[in-house]
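Observation: inputs received (chain + magnesium ion).
Thought: call the complex predictor directly.
Action: predict_structure
Action Input:
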Amino acid sequence: MTATRIPVTLIAGDGIGPEIMDAALAVLEAVDVPFEWDRQVAGMGALKNGSDPLPQSTLDSIRRTRLALKGPLETPSGGGFRSINVRLREAFKLYANIRPALTIIPGGRYDNIDLVICRENLEGLYMGFENFVAIDDDPHAVAMATGVNTRQGARHILEYAFEYALANGRKKVTVVHKANIMKALTGIFLETAREMYEANYKGRIQFEEVIVDACAMKLVMNPWQFDVLVTTNLFGDILSDLTAGLVGGLGMAPGANIGADAAIFEAVHGSAPDIAGQGIANPVALILASAMMLDHVGLQDKATRVRQAVSDTLNIDQVRTGDLGGKATTRELTDALVQRVRNG
Ligand code: NAI
Ligand code: MG
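Observation:
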């Protein structure tokens, strides 16, 4: 019997969101979690109902629960409203975006991948300080963006990365930057990393510096040389899709947004409009994000059961969705996962 219920805000999201969220909820229910779901809307789902894409009730819910499981939210490119994901991160100061890449299915392009990207989640070029300058009759003649990185912001995520590495028995922290070109914007991040390492972490863990473009090449050529990578917002966004590709694709990559005021768990991938509504999306990324949430609330045993069920279903039962080379529907994979959790 579970004593206390844990309230969690639930946002199914756009595109494949509702399909994979149903799958995640079925798996969590099978593992008998004490979560009390508070269903809220955001993104296109909210817009269609005629409300703000980030309704006040959703913000109020997360302010109360301080915990959310979220499906992907569609963001229009070019014009349109500002990313709800970015607004949520700002609203709850979710400064650390933790994105592990772990091989679950052996025999792919790469075996035995086990690395973690710690991405600064609030600053850099994501702040949206952008504008066009008109020249003559072209309103978009010039485009400008201002990135902002602060010493304090760098400290927050760097401390998180170093402490995470130590707490999880990791050997090395790699700071990824472009301080050779953006000497101020990413120089401050590198400089802060060096200072913090010298002051607090030297002798306790290895530390190295890599420039982002070389890092991309190294991640493809020899990803095993990395352990924990810590970087600024945009680089972390790009490299974490790359590292998802090392472990079977976006369908396998979970993420946690951790902050002072809340924690929001989600998949790395987006709303996958190309396959939405077809019942073929891979729910594993969101399910692994749920496992990260179980860890976060101290239910490590249940998290382990979920991860074991994922591995057994994909590898022993060989039930896989199309992105993993299989033929299973979301529903069939979910049923197999639930079976595994129940028997596990
Ligand atoms: P995407 O991640 O949605 O899709 C990229 C490719 O991966 C597509 O071919 C898609 O079918 C495939 N894919 C993604 N997740 C999958 C899954 N679970 N199973 C099987 N295949 C999967 O990226 P895209 O198309 O660039 O973005 C679509 C929308 O999602 C955009 O509006 C974007 O802003 C938004 N987005 C939202 C995120 C969030 O809510 N955290 C993160 C990334 C993008
Ligand atoms: Mg991304």
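Thought: report the result.
Final Answer: The first strand starts at residue 6 and ends at 11. Residues 16, 20, 72-75, 85, 250-251, 266, 269-275, 281-282, 285, 323 surround NAI (ligand 1) (CB under 6 Å).
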